[in-house]
DNA sequence: TGTTAAGCGAGACGGTACGTCGCGTCTTAAT
DNA sequence: ATTAAGACGCGACGTACCGTCTCGCTTAACA
């Protein structure tokens, strides 16, 4: 019966939030700055988001995005293609910061834990598919544990790129994929 | 005539800081809370630490600790032993949070970047030694790239434990080590 | 062609407004509280009243009420009877608060000044009549200044009851009336 | 052991508060405006005053001021002199507004009630003295009730000046004093 | 007897001020 | 000279109301 919350306002807020995040970083992120920049009243922001942290996380919704599942015909090719999609995103410092923030905050805040879960699940799908395809082709043993495999696959990239903050060039990507596929094939 | 800065005070502050970190998490970490809890005046804290973030990080100094280098006679044994040391530390939620915080903050704050570097280096030493020993035994090819290998080794554990927050039991530890050693041996 | 504004709604608003005034006082008086309590939408309230202050004042319309003019045959009797009517109204704390609020606000808001004027005038009529009757009976000199007399009559009661917030019992009422009549008779 | 609250800051705040009151009236009175104008931080204001209302009332402390007790040798002279002191103060619209605000708020807020009490008591002293002197000179009966007399004296002036907002010129002052003294002498 | 403009509830919106909290700096008295 | 205590300027927080504005739905007067 009442006026619906304006999706336009919500979007303007999210856009401004992303801009602020990019410009000032996580530490300089402020609801009042977002309000000023978006031209939306602070009270309206609080009508759409329970608090500043949630707003920041929502602004980072892009982290929880769908990745395409490649199908190149070989395990190595699929893994290289998939990581080729994921790596650029992890390279954006704002996203990296936010992602780590999500992981850290998930320990205490249940709402953030949910985002964390979604973020993790989103990347699981393609990996499972890639593994299944490889099993179908006979490249991998049928009883390979998917849970362990996904950490074995993602871990090295995550470690190098986001934790150690080193670049991953084309050669490194291929070398890591080679190590990973060799390891996976040895399963059992 | 002057009183030296009491080391006792510094230590009480650090202890209180760790307690606060553990109880309230990174978000609830506050200089004033640490002051109240430690019974030390805020001004004294600022005499010992340049600002609240540095205090928090110093309280996390334990993360930058020396790990013993195992020597069990086999690559698998050494890796299992090493990770057996590292994993319990990563399991402490306060340390985990802090570590992620360090990684995130390193992007902007050069002082934290230094801590980040030390934290990373501390773990590198034992890994290099383990790899060198394995090369000496002929378990690994001589030209194995240490930089890539260390991400390939640590990454899966880090991913599973700290990012995905799943337990790593004895069996999982051994399975991951098996995958890793198989991968490493395939180098070249 | 259009629907007329529902008098029922207006009345429900006024009732709720008076209730809110009585319960929370002038400071706790809020349009939104009145809306919630009355079950009437805020927009409807603003359709009937230009703003919150006006609503509050309208809710106090009862202060601007007609008082009967007594005629007991003597000045003392008339004054006692008149104040006997007025005092109970001044005793209602909500009305008292509101009345003071009107006086205070009249200084700045011309609309409230109008209410203030009406409020004052309403009480003037009976007093003039009482004085005229007394003059007719020869109890008071013909040239008694009505303007001064009305302050001389009302002032002591107002001061004691509304400003000093002390009770006025039967005896006090009679004593004050005696002082007043004696004073008035001395005019000239 | 700690730094004492700076009396200078408190005074600057009060000065600014009075200025704001005078310029914008009670409605435009805002803690943030006072902060900005005084150059004192909002948090400091809240360190000195529990809330904005209390600040406003403290700024009106001048209302609770000591009045000199005249001694002209006659009751009429004393009353004229005393009201000659009081009337100019009641004429300041800011003070008048505030005074009514104090009376109104005293009903609900115990702290304001205390101010109200002090405000009332401050004026009682001189009046009692004036009455006692008159009794000593034989101008008034010994058994005159002071409580009733004080309302009888102050009431008319208060009513005319602050409630009805009419001027009190020299002639009116004398006429009212004449009525009052005549009334008082009739006691008993 | 429909039509239709206004009333109405609900509540979103842009604002302003609130009172609180934490920061990092400072001043004071005591040790 | 260092410490405990805490005041200070600053600035963000999240809340409460303000008065205005869309929304659909309902309803009484006109056509």
Describe the structure in your own words.
The structure is a homotetramer of 188-residue chains. Chain A has 188 residues and is mainly α. Chain A is built from nine helices and no strands. The first copy, chain A, has helices at residues 7-24, 31-38, 42-48, 52-59, 75-91, 93-106, 110-137, 146-163, 170-185. The longest helix of chain A has 28 residues, at 110-137. The C-D interface holds C 25-27, 93, 96-97, 100-101, 103-104, 106-108, 116, 120, 145, 147-148, 151-152, 154-160, 162-166, 172, 175-176, 178-180, 182-187 and D 25-27, 53, 93, 96-97, 100-101, 103-108, 116, 120, 145, 147-148, 151-152, 154-160, 162-166, 172, 175-176, 178-180, 182-187.
Question: Layout of helices and strands, plus pairs?
Answer:
4 copies of one chain form a homotetramer.
Chain A lengths: L6 H18 L6 H8 L3 H7 L3 H8 L15 H17 L1 H14 L3 H28 L8 H18 L6 H16 L3
Helix pairs in contact in A: 1-2, 1-4, 5-7, 5-8, 5-9, 6-7, 8-9
The structure holds a DNA duplex (31 and 31 nucleotides).
């Amino acid at each position: 019966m009442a006026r619906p919350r304006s999706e336009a306002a919500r979007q303007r807020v999210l856009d401004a939030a992303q801009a602020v995040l990019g410009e000032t970083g996580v530490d300089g992120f402020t609801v009042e700055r977002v309000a000023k920049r978006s031209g939306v009243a602070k009270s309206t922001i609080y009508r759409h988001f329970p608090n500043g942290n949630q707003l920041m996380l929502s602004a980072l919704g892009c982290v929880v995005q769908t990745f395409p599942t490649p199908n190149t015909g070989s395990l190595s090719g699929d893994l290289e293609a998939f990581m080729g999609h994921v790596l650029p995103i992890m390279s954006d410092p704002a996203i990296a910061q936010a992602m780590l923030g999500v992981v850290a905050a998930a320990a205490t805040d249940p709402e953030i834990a949910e985002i964390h879960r979604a973020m993790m699940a989103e990347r699981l799908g393609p990996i499972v598919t890639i593994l299944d395809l490889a099993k179908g082709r006979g490249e991998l043993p049928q009883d390979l544990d998917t849970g362990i495999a996904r950490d074995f696959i993602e871990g090295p990239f995550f470690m190098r790129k986001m934790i150690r903050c080193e670049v991953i060039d084309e050669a490194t990507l291929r070398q890591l994929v080679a190590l990973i596929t060799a390891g996976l094939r040895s399963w059992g």
